[in-house]
Amino acid sequence: MTTRTVGEPIARREDPRLLTGQGRYLDDIGHDALAAAFVRSPHAHARIVDVDVTDALDVDGLVAIYTHEDLPGRVGEPLPVLIPHAALTEPRTPYALARDEVNHVGEAVVMVVATGRDVAEDVCERIRVEYDFLPPVVGIESSRDAAALVHDDVPGNVSAHLVQEVGDARAAVDAAPHVVELDLEIERSASTPLEGKGVHARWDADDRSLRVYTSTQASTSVRAAVAAKLELPPDRVEVIAPDVGGGFGVKIVHPWPEEVLVPWAAIRLGREVKWTEDRREHFVSAAHERGQLQHVRAGFDDDGRVLGLDVTFWHDNGAYTPYGIIVPIVTSTQLLGPYKPGAYRVEFSSLYTNTVTVTPYRGAGRPQGCFAMERTMDAIAAELGLDRTVVRERNFIQPDEMPYDHGLTFQDGRPLIYDSGDFPATLAKLRKLVGWDEFETYRDQARAQGRRVGIGIGCYVEGTGVGPYEGGFVKVETDGTVVVATGLTTQGQGHQTVFAQVVADELGVGVDRVAVTTGDTRRFGYAVGTFASRAAVMSGNAVALAARRVREKALRVAGEALEADPRDLEIVDGEVRVKGTPGATIPLTTVAVLSNPLRYAFDAETERATQFASPGDPDQPPVADDDEPGLQGTDYYSPPRSTFANGMHAAIVETDPETAEISILRYCVVHDCGTLLNPRLVEGQIHGGVAQGVGGALYERMVYDDAGQLVNASFMDFLMPYATEVPAIEIDHLQTPSPLNPLGVKGAGEAGVIPVSAVLAAAIEDAEGIRVTRMPMSPSELHHLRERSTNEEGPRR
Amino acid sequence: MKPSAFAYHRPGTVDEAVATLAGVGDDGKVLAGGQSLVPMLNMRLAAPAHLVDVNRVDGLDEVRVVDDGAGASVRVGAAARHTDVEHDAEVAAVLPLLRQALEHVAHPTIRNRGTTVGSLVHADPAAELNAVLALLGGSVTLRSTTGSRVVNASELVTGPMQTCLRPDELATEAAFPVPQGHTGTAWTEVSRRAGDYAVCGVGVLVTVDDELRVRSARAAYVSMGPVPEVLDLTEPVAGIAAGGARPDEWAAAGRLATARLEPDDDIHATAAYRGHLAGVLTARAARAAAERAVARAGDTTGAST
Ligand SMILES: Cc1cc2nc3c(=O)[nH]c(=O)nc-3n(C[C@H](O)[C@H](O)[C@H](O)COP(=O)(O)OP(=O)(O)OC[C@H]3O[C@@H](n4cnc5c(N)ncnc54)[C@H](O)[C@@H]3O)c2cc1C
């Protein structure tokens, strides 16, 4: 057997290239392209009265200035609502360039094209836009009050309202022996990839074809969207995601205004045009996430079992809803995590505000849901004086209840059914890893030294690998190279490594022979995109299925050559051989040659494959009716529904009794994403997720003032954690394979981030003895929380 | 985020540099390490028509300890990097406060480029070195085609990011005086992330007498007002045993700081929290400085016997 690589922690094959500066990101493309820049609204809510370009016209190097008036046909129509939903009764999307109203600071109003970005920015500075101010709606409370409206035809600022209920939850709460009630708040954060968005477009007028490079998570859909907007046949549009420096959700949204405008301008001007988003633009014109207010009522029995759970929450969707209401739907369904309340009711309102649009950011509504559920579990434990892990365990869905149907509808429109998982086993591993039972001893020791420490825990279930499908293409070249293509994109996950591992194992070749291409519509046309922790599940299985087709053909062709039954053949180290018969072998390269009868011999390899050289039956066509030339195959994987990964995190924190600084002493993760294709990559995903989670829990927030200005729109004041702020992460795995797909895998991309705010809130609460209901938490806020609690309850402990 | 076009000048001598500055008038800016200026250019918060790069000016990159009779001082040239000062062994021996503070200035990569003099004339109210200069009573030398003047710390900084420099002046050197007597220093601060500008930062200088009792204590603060704030803490701690004082004895110094300072709110911290921090950090820094003063006094006594 060739050494199997699936399951091995092999190093990322893309790293040498990326780490030595050989990466090719959007801004590395098109050095001679014209540059675009945008005049963006400095106001949160205003009517555009006039755009005056007079002062800008004499800037050297100016090529074009466009406003909404210049946009023809569909380019001038509102951008699409990508994911409509029956509950989204008032969807609103922006125009590529604002028409007569702006609804958040940063909305694009004027597009400038010039010989260089510096020149384009000079031009932008000289364009005067006159506005009539409208009252800005900032924050969930003011949106809910609806004293002012974001869109004057959307009453109450409500874009969507949805109730899901299983059983009679309110009655169950009312009848329960104990009830806790919590008001919770999670603030905004954002994906904040280090590479912002960017688009480069080139129109070939003779060929009547358009090539677009864009830093996206969904190149095939961008292609369809651009073709539709520009009224081009999709066949004449190519969209390629080059190396992408992070996405985390924000780049799944499409088409961004710039993805329409840059190609449109390139066609109109007959010149290459490029736009590279700068950091400030990204903060004010891309997308944010997370902001929610939540109200939870939970009724439970003396053992802490939840009899009824009644959740209402208000979700800030920003100024528009281009990506529908996926985020609050995910919150409302994934909130349940590993638990099975007796009855569940969830109601949400998705609200407009005059702030940047909200679309999924890694975790996509789950961190908020997990926060609500886990804060509730801790409150129940506190109420009953029970150990927090015990309360959780009593509410777990048990392994023998799998598959478990919650009776709810998930984000993919399918029933919310957990396929597999062993929650008690995960918890047992975590308790051991973090030393849950020894913690009180440690707390006492720390207290004796004047130190204050606390421990927290959080559990989550993550629906991953949502459909509808992905495809894979696998081809063995005559030189032995195995070419793999899949349509979804890569933004740092390591797909060049992991898909190669899958294909290498299926075909019995070394990983180093396999070259993987992603996100290039020239190479694979049908795809959905990289989001919802779906790449390994969807494309992983698709390339496995495609490779199996290739393997089958290789064995058939080799069987004919070796005069052996294909069932007696195996592929080892790139050679097909008869099992147990040394010497009876044929290299896969030769099989590739044989599988393609040629007319012309242009080298030694192909000489052996010309139609005249091939033996075969002279009465049969060289390519049989049901066959095709070449050693290649395409297949698709389409799951019945999502597969559910799960995990549990625990953290030990220390809070400085004087300065209120919060430090994470230990951070432990037990994670179950089914079969591990590559543990190193999974751990990398967990590290990145936890780092972003720590950011959301202790550092990051979007600070809007009452006028709707984002006052911290830079990396100086938006506190993304440095390596110094991210703790060492201790990881243990469980592998409960998914019964839903051939590889048995579940997604892992978002898991790390989901419970971090819940876990750190719990740990801070435990250290301080003060209930924590809102995150993130800064030292300044902890200080004031202490003061308030001392004033209300007298000194603590 | 691309700066608008500017003319770039790279003088080789101080005379050439000041002549260039005089020539470009109000439209020029000195470019030192670029760690503060370049982001401002990119964000178009500044758009000078001329940049005068002083990185290749002869003789500006020196870090020296000078004793000119009036007392020793550390002299830092305008092209010397934070790193050069931080890692100079002689400087660390005579004036440990510089290294103590510099360790809190940004990150090593930024200290490798950013200059100490550039930081002083940039006059960010959160800049550690302005507080150090103020605490020690140091000064900066300014040169122009019309001559040279020496301004002390309080003259230099006139407001947040505002100084007494004229557009034609080049800061050539900073002088940090070495304090007399048995002294100890400490720098302590709280910042949101490692290397960020402080939410509250304090440097303390404690002098002890031969009985190792506190003779005087002074503190300087960053991020606690528009300019570095210097407080005399002597009154509440005078005469206490510098090596063995109880925490509550130092807390008195902290209370004084909380009472005197008038910080502002910002998005990272409330004024009340800053005031509270000033109290905590003052007590901690004063205690650490006093312990170092005792240790140094012991060293000198040891050396003289
Ligand atoms: C991420 C980050 C974090 C930082 N954190 C801190 C911190 O915690 N504490 C801190 O103190 N600083 C911090 N800084 C600022 C850093 O110390 C800068 O290097 C310093 O403030 C300016 O030095 P520079 O040599 O880079 O000056 P430049 O950026 O080149 O210039 C700054 C200003 O001073 C003027 N100037 C510079 N030199 C002269 C001169 N010789 N004569 C006349 N004018 C001159 C320039 O014209 C410009 O206006 C940080 C910077 C960054 C990027």
TrEMBL record, chain A:
State the InterPro entries in the record: Ald_Oxase/Xan_DH_a/b (IPR000674), Ald_Oxase/Xan_DH_a/b_sf (IPR036856), Ald_Oxase/xanthine_DH-like (IPR016208), AldOxase/xan_DH_MoCoBD1 (IPR008274), AldOxase/xan_DH_MoCoBD2 (IPR046867), AldOxase/xan_DH_Mopterin-bd_sf (IPR037165)
Q: Residues annotated as region Disordered?
A: 608-639, 777-797
Gene3D superfamilies per UniProt: Aldehyde oxidase/xanthine dehydrogenase, a/b hammerhead (3.90.1170.50), Aldehyde oxidase/xanthine dehydrogenase, molybdopterin binding domain (3.30.365.10)
Q: This protein is called what?
A: CO/xanthine dehydrogenase Mo-binding subunit
Domain of life according to the entry:
Bacteria
Q: Which UniProt keywords apply?
A: Molybdenum, Oxidoreductase
Q: Which residues form the Aldehyde oxidase/xanthine dehydrogenase a/b hammerhead domain?
A: 20-135
Keyword Oxidoreductase, does the record have it?
Answer: yes
Give a yes or no for keyword Oxidoreductase in this entry.
yes
From TrEMBL, chain B:
| Limits of the FAD-binding PCMH-type domain | 1-181
PANTHER family in the record: XANTHINE DEHYDROGENASE SUBUNIT C-RELATED
Q: Does the keyword Flavoprotein apply?
A: yes
**Top-level taxon of the source organism:** Bacteria
State the organism named in the record. Haloactinopolyspora alba
Q: What is this protein called?
A: Carbon-monoxide dehydrogenase medium subunit
Q: Which UniProt keywords apply?
A: FAD, Flavoprotein, Oxidoreductase
Membrane-spanning parts: none
Q: Name one GO molecular function term.
A: oxidoreductase activity
